[in-house]
Amino acid sequence: MLTYDSLKSLPQKVAGPAYDVRKVTSGIVHFGVGNFFRAHLGYYVDRVLALPDQQHWGITGVGLRSGGNSDRKAEEFRAQEGLYSLTEIAADGKAEIRVMGCLRDYLQAPDEPETVLALLADKATKIVSMTITEGGYNIDETTGEFRTSLPAVQEDLANPKKPSTIFGFVVEGLRRRREAGHGGLTVMSCDNLRHNGDVSRKAFVGYARAVDADLAEWIDQNVTFPNAMVDRITPSVSDEGKSKLNERSGLEDLQPLLSEDFIQWVIEDKFAAGRPAFDKVGVEFTDQVSAYEHAKIRMLNSSHLILSAAGMLLNLELVDQVLGEPRVHKFVDSVLEKDVIPTLKAPPGVDLHKYKATLLTRFSNAAMADQVARIASDATSKAQVFWTETVRAVLEGGRERTRIVYCMALLLELLRGRNEKGEKIALQEPFLTAEQLNIAASDDFEASIGLPAFDSWRDLLTPEIKQEIVRDRELIRQKGVLASLPV
Fold it and tell me: Among the residues of 63-211, which ranges form H helices?
């Protein structure tokens, strides 16, 4: 088991913290201590702590649940005094292993709510960060406003000084902070969500407004919510995976972590109470975060969805296996090169062709064991987010549309719920009605074009384009994915 004492005798291939972990104090409170947080924000903070006069930027993790796995996680973090190992593996198999000392404490909010609230109100706390998943911000997709109707939120609103949700904890902590005269801080989303700072502001100020309009105004004026783009593939680690990681490292780590060697964080420099020296450890600061978001969504996320749809139909489990098919690799490369890049404005200083090459290398990293089923879940919603701008640019611009039409056919074949052999696949489409799922599963190709997946560009689907979609679906059925790909 990792402890402070074990840092004195780490295996030769394992790097330890480049700072005295005993001298690190907490300046960041993070909600949602999952693998991505530990490999991303934790990674950057670990490097910051090695710089002069930065030891006050340690992290206190907060879990919003108790019982079961949550209790186990808390026990293991505490037993290891917050230490954990990170194994970074490149596409060529080269690995680097280090022990991280940035996590200084771990609290379970349901079991120690007053401790969490006191920490949020503490003057030493400068940043509240979170990874609560893209859907965790409780925003109504129709109105764009914070939903106060959620039962857990209603409970917090009825007794705001004894919260259970992240919104209740953070806003009550800010209320106490204002009362103590400690000023504002930064609320920083680390979720893979477009305009995540703006969404966070809407969520927390929206909740605060339902509690106290004056408090909401104070938060709006004194708390900053920087937008950011985060990127790093960090797979889940099974018990077997933990054993393999520990065998590789020579450690006895209860919470070993795996990630790719690539990492990126682009963020607005809007910090109300100061920030770590992130600019000295590779974080990119810009007021054009949306440009990076566009590039990531239209290149990484869009091609990820193509690979997952093809993989599900081909009955392949992992992204690297799908990309390992030469015809699939060539097709995805062509979509990016011919359909996406010519219609996408590059972020400042970014070469989109090099970015494409980097993405394809990352996707080929077998060590990540990236599951296509995970990426293919809720493909209807993802297509509207990831594909819309490219599809509209191609169709409105009168550009050659062969590949884009094929992608639409590929998606409808995925929604059918069977692979190219006719075998059922695990389809997760939580927002389709039973009637829509029946249409998707039917052989009525014309009717399936009316499914919501194409709503964002439906006005551009001429009778000719619809015929082409039907034709491509027929080709996929007749020849299979690999033989029907337009490469």
Answer: 69-79, 113-121, 151-158, 166-180, 196-211
Provide the Cα torsion 313, 339, 387, 283; round to 10°. 110
Cα 367 to Cα 363: distance, rounded to the nearest angstrom: 10
As a whole number of angstroms, the distance between CA 275 and CA 387 comes to 35
Which tokens in the block code for residue 436?
């829509």
Burial class (CB in 10 A: 0-12, 13-18, 19+), 270: middle
E strand or H helix at 31, and its extent?
Answer: strand 26-31
pLDDT in tens, 346-355: 998 999 999 9
| Contact of 305 with 387, CB cutoff 8 Å | yes
Residue 192 has what pLDDT?
87
- Strand duo 103-108 + 228-231: pairing: unpaired
Site of tokens 């990531």: 296
Give the pLDDT score at 141: 75
Q: Are 109 and 168 contacting, i.e. CB atoms less than 8 angstroms apart?
A: no
Q: How far apart are the first and last CA of the chain?
A: 52
Place of tokens 């960060």: 129
Beta carbons within 8 Å of 102's beta carbon, 6+ residues apart: 24, 42, 45, 46, 49, 58, 59, 82
The structure tokens 């985060």 sit at 230
Q: What global pTM score does this model have? A: 0.90
> Residue 25 in contact with residue 56, Cβ under 8 Å?
yes
Residue 70 CA from chain centroid, whole number: 20
Stretch 110-126: mean pLDDT: 98
Q: What are 147's two structure tokens?
A: 């939903």
**Phi/psi-derived region of residue 251, left when phi > 0, alpha when psi is between -120 and 50, beta in every other case:** beta
- The whole-angstrom separation of Cα 479 and Cα 468 is 16
State the average pLDDT over residues 453-475. 97
Of 272, 292, 294, the closest CA to residue 283 belongs to: 292
